[in-house]
Prior knowledge:
Elements: E1 2-7, H1 14-26, E2 31-32, E3 39-44, H2 46-55, E4 64-69, E5 79-80, H3 84-92, E6 98-110, E7 117-121, E8 124-129, E9 134-140, E10 143-156, H4 164-167, E11 180-187, E12 200-202, E13 208-212, E14 218-222, E15 225-227, E16 232-247, H5 254-262
Parallel strand pairs: 1-2, 1-3, 3-4, 4-5, 4-16
Antiparallel strand pairs: 6-7, 6-16, 8-10, 8-14, 9-10, 9-13, 10-11, 11-12, 13-16, 14-15
Residues 45-47, 50, 71, 74-75, 123-124, 159-160, 162-164, 167, 223-224 line the site of NADP nicotinamide-adenine-dinucleotide phosphate.
Amino acid sequence: MRVAIYSNPGKASMPVSLLLKQKIEQSSQLTLDFLNPEVVISVGGDGTLLSAFHHYIDISNKIRLVGIHTGHLGFYTDWRDYEVDSLVASLENDDGQSETYPLLDIRVKYTDHGPDDHTLALNESTLKQISGTLMAEVYLKGEFFENFRGDGLCISTPSGSTAYNKSVGGAIINPQISAVQVSEISSINNRVFRTLGSPIIVPPDETIRILPVNKHKTVLTCDQQMISGREIESIEYKLSKQRLAFAKYRHTHFWGRVSNSFIGEPRQ
Ligand code: NAP
């Protein structure tokens, strides 16, 4: 099986990725292939796995990802740094087992009428403004929904619901549910301006279209990246038909992960 390693350059991750490389080179069943891998092993945190996804985005429908966490256990990372041997053994005995997560489809139109940008997010996309209040028209399923005013909007996948979305009061969605969530970032609500004021969950067949008013000031992010440089006319979001596959050699209970990450050990 062809395997690539994608590591963050941190002090905790480099020795792990070096050991992993040695073990893969010693294996008769595994080959290192950074250009055309079947499995990509990310070494770092959830942020590193996000970067690995974007690094291999053009072949993301052909790969499976697996994450080694060199800090605390993450949402995309099932393995700990001291488990390199058992991960290599699992890769050698791989029979294609996987779990897939929904992705967010993002299409950006520009005022210059040049080519659209089309990309995917694993966590979320946010729309903000460089300075001042973001003003934007929001359309759901082709119909006008609201005029948004505030710091921004966060459009997330179920697996991204535990990231930025959670910080802005969005609900946590189990990635077994195919849906997109729209959460407000500090909306202005008074007698003049009115937004819904709560997160919404949009089904797979519906699109979310956002038209920013101050187009030259709009900042658009996709996971940890910023999509910028041109004046944005509109952004269309929907659940992607493509899902991202993870090599699953062990079962991790999603709600266990949530409890472990955000609540910790039960107190007596
Ligand atoms: P970062 O600012 O270095 O780290 C953001 C934190 O989010 C890290 O602790 C990371 O975990 C964690 N994280 C990433 N994906 C997650 C997920 N699906 N569930 C729970 N936690 C998750 O940025 P980064 O490492 O490049 O990651 C980019 C992400 O940061 C964005 O996609 C966004 O979700 C998040 N972010 C959050 C806020 C906020 O909460 N106010 C603001 C901006 C961006 P690890 O430590 O395991 O890497």
